[in-house]
Amino acid sequence: MVQTQEKEKRSNVPTARPLEDKVTWRNLPEKKQLLLLALCRLSTPLSNACLLPYLYYLVKSILSDPEHPSAPQHISRLTGLLVAAYPLGQMSTSMIWGRLSDTYGRKPAILAGLTISVVANLAFGFSRSIGMLLFWRVLAGMANGILGVMRTMTAEIVKERRYQARAFLALPLIFNSGRVAALAIGGCLADPVRNIPWLFGPTGFFNVSSNPEGVAWAVKYPYALPALFNGFILAICLVLAALGLRESLPAREKSRDLGLIIGKSISGFVKRKVLRKADSGYTALQIEEGEVLTADVPITASGASTPTRSSSKPSLREIWTKPLLKTLMAFCLLPLHNATFLHIFPVFLSMPTSDNAHPTILRFVGGLGLAAPTVGIFLATLGICGILLQLFIYPRIQKRIGVLGAFRLASSIFPIAYVFAPFLSLLGGHAMAKWPAMVAILFAQVMARTMAIPSSVILLTEAAPQRNVLGTVHGAGNTLSALASATGPVIGGLLLARGIDSGSVGIVWWCWLLVVALGSLAWSFMLDSRDENDVALEPAE
């Protein structure tokens, strides 16, 4: 009797459950699958961000009269079109990719998108007309309409909602890492005859034909090298995804996958040849990662590690609920100003400086006159800060104030960066002042988007009425996001050109970026967050 009472007392004592109470990167389930999926996410920064440091100079190089006084205005308009072409392509295929992935599987959609992306990136580097550049940019965007599929796959791979906030950070984390590398590589590899003369110049290592101008193909196609690098990296990601990524669509999870079979054969061969564990007296245990990391997760009757909602397909009215529509609006407003900034800021840094002899608080022109390698390295350096913020600061903020609170905080920082950014024109000739000012403005914008992007994805996922329509919801979100990302840079490029013409470079910043950012901030208070505590994060370790 006494023993029974003691057992009952012990059974009532709460035991430590670290996997349920504390969510860290270490106990995140399905890390291998998330890594492969995140590597596929590299298609966007490599296709889209790599050209930003040299975009101004690329357009200038194909103009018939690049030294004409009106060239900066013309370049601003054309760069806006080139930047907008990519999300325009995304917008045209996002819903199609979502529906195809709901029917044929997530993995085939991702592999097809990556294949097209490789071709488009390679061809872009060898194009020397605005028409062909636009065509390949649109095609690359169409290929990267799979972003919604990747987000859906993330939610399906990591089914428990308490892990999803950190799981959704994996894609932006790799995106930011890829963006950092793409910006630096794009700036440094652009025009290699001039920027890397010891390799591609007249006396360069690769100038085996002794061409007096440098490596022949690099002279003819000065911006092909970054594209070749992009194509090579994306081809590697394509092979890794084909061999290691598992299908997550419930209806096709058990389907035979030739890529996985080949991948397991290669992995087994490498283990047998390299590790030789049997010879040392150890026995390799074949345990799936998911079985270990979700062993203590409560399993429902259906076998899922999270309660499932109704399995039947809801009607259109049931899908497009009021909370979902409000969240989609917020999801759209964010890239409307963020994509514009990502286009305008590198162009602004590359534009020639102006003396601004008699500036006023609203009327001044000019850029900062930075070279492409300098622009790329500067943007990449601040991008590293974004990665660190995402790893160590965002989880703490999100845990303290929730997903919606983090989104609102980020939305309040954007306007500050946009108000002060154009005043950098007045510091073009003051090296001691312009660099700290540039760092402060870009850091504020990077910090804001680091918090806003993952928060917006989580909010959209939580707004979906059922899990089996996530592909449709994220496809719609990606379509609207792509539309905003296409519209913003076009308007931004036109307003930047108008500002140069009228003698006020701040027009695009104050009349577009600031207005949209303030609208996004106001709209964030229209949103409701459901069960924020279920996705709260512990500080990253």
In short:
The protein contains 22 helices and no strands. The protein has helices at about 1-10, 20, 30-40, 45-50, 55-60, 70-105, 105-125, 130-145, 145-155, 160-190, 190-195, 195-200, 215-220, 225-245, 260-275, 290-295, 315-320, 320-350, 370-420, 430-465, 470-500, 505-525.
Descriptive report:
- With 541 residues, the chain is mainly alpha-helical.
- The protein has one domain (29-263, 316-535): Growth Hormone, Chain: A, CATH 1.20.1250.
- It contains 22 helices and no strands.
- The chain has helices at residues 2-12, 18-21, 31-40, 43-49, 55-62, 71-104, 106-125, 130-143, 147-157, 161-189, 192-195, 197-200, 216-220, 224-244, 258-275, 289-293, 316-319, 322-350, 372-420, 431-463, 470-502, 507-524.
- Helix 3 packs antiparallel against helix 14 and helix 18 (322-350) packs across helix 19 (372-420).
- The longest helix has 49 residues, at 372-420.
- It is globular and about 65 Å long.
- It starts with a helix and ends in a 17-residue tail after the last helix.
- Mean pLDDT is 82; it is low at 7-19, 280-310 and 531-541.
